[in-house]
Protein: 2,3-dihydroxybenzoate-AMP ligase
Organism: Actinoplanes auranticolor
Amino acid sequence: MASDVVPWPADLAHAYRAAGCWRGESLGAQLWRWADDHPDRVAVADDTRRLTYRELAVLADRLAEGLDRLGLRRGDSALVQLPNTWEFVVVLLACLRADVAPVMMLPPHRESELGAIGAHVDARAVIVPGMWRSYDHEALAHRVLPRLADKARVLVCGEPRREASARLGDLLEPAPGDDAAQRRERLDVRAPTGAEVAVFLLSGGTTAVPKVIARTHDDYAYNIRCAVAACAFDARTVYLAALPAGHNFPLANPGILGTLAAGGRVVMVGSPRPDAVFAAIEAERVTVTAAVPAVVLRWMDAAAATRHDLSSLRYVQVGGSMLSPDVAARIRPALGCGLQQVYGMAEGLICYTRPDATDEVATMTQGAPISAYDELLVVDRDGTPVPPGGIGELLTRGPYTPRGYYRAPQQNAESFTTDGWYRTGDLVRITAAGHVVVCGRVKDLINRGGEKISAGEIEQLLQELPEVAEVAAVAVPDPMVGERVCAVVRLHPERSLTLTAVRAFLTARGVAAFKAPEHLVVVDQLPHTPVGKPDKARLRALVSATLSDA
Ligand code: J2J
């Protein structure tokens, strides 16, 4: 429902339209423009299938009508939990064509995440891979159904094992008398006009009110256009999606959608493992890919010994968590390609170092915003702007940074100022040349290899353990993944607790495995702030002292 999405103020919306940022066109409608321009060019490839732009458009349209037959209507939403395969792209574009908003879940998500988010957005379908990495996602989807909208359906990419599931392959088959042109017209008539929700992206925790970001066709299309321009993507671009495709970074910055908009080729690979990635780079002559620092470190370690030819690779885009300048400087020698740093967020604002940046800018900064209409403000704890070049929390707003989370008025009062600035929770400084340098953060989360874990979510869950009197989750620095979760607990008298028990509890609660603590510290007393909350700064110091002694 439109009222659940916080709109931009009317005068600004008008200004963004007048300036040509918002064009009133659905992302789905663009698919056919691309297909008409270069129907026979390869749009998407994985190691099982290659689709031309025309084939992609035809399959997306078929599936769009298939979703309608399953009972999904304009304005509905569907949880999409698919690995990086050609089907991911078809499902994404089918949703955009059908005006069904895909909710970008990740393959490691379980009942806790799918249930909470599915209920929050009132999802009408769960689209899953069947079996993936020995895990039965079809069964997971059926366990989640009771928490979703009435008559919600499970759609399986693969061979369903239950009668109640629909099979994706069936919806992609031509029906007798299949007529692509007529179907295209039928769908064009129903196309959204811009302000409708195109996709739902996820942010942070899921236990209380999930933070779900509704991105409109207008704002996301603009974001994608600006990202394509900032990264100079064009028809020669061969983009490898190695990060989980449901993340905003590989999805649209410029990622999958940006590559398609530029007329390039998207290559989907099911894992960011060096062997899989290097083989795909060689096979498809990949020119650009995206990674979080933890992943690029693994690639750098493996590159020296690889027999694969990586010479087609021109850039690797790195973002999502802190990249140290010395690792940044080693990327070109190790991988033989340039580095483009990215500082971005599913909430909107995206910054890049440009392809022609000096080495200093590319290694030492996280780049500049992609739009001239992005507004950035660096403030101190009281909300007062700091002097130029000073460190403070970054606030931002602009034509592709929504003004609130979906259906979350209380959260919005915290995360947005009354005049519409989004509080990023990141500490930054902005150089004289306008480049953002990320210096730390004030928000209470743990950034494990680019996956954001809400400390509050983990604390709330662990508080359910009968042994636990009080708990705090903090980040522990880690050379490989940047940070890992450490649970600090005070136990009830005479009780004991092990890390294994904590992890087993979270698995049983249906929480994604990447969120489970990897360290456990038991204390007699938790340090508190004057207002009685666990003192995270002192806890981090205590934990690092305890773990380094161990
Ligand atoms: C330090 N922290 C960073 C960076 C993001 C492109 C790139 C990344 C994301 C993303 C994205 C960082 N150095 N270079 O959506 O399109 C941390 C900040 C930020 C948070 C956002 C994209 N780049 N971060 O990471 O929504 O704390 O988006 O606020 O997952 O990641 O996380 P997320």
User: Anything to note?
Assistant: Residues 209 and 410 are 9 Å apart (CA to CA). The chain has a mean pLDDT of 96. Residues 203, 248-249, 253, 319-322, 341-346, 350, 366, 424, 426, 438, 441, 450, 452 surround J2J (CB under 6 Å). The two ends are 53 Å apart (CA to CA).
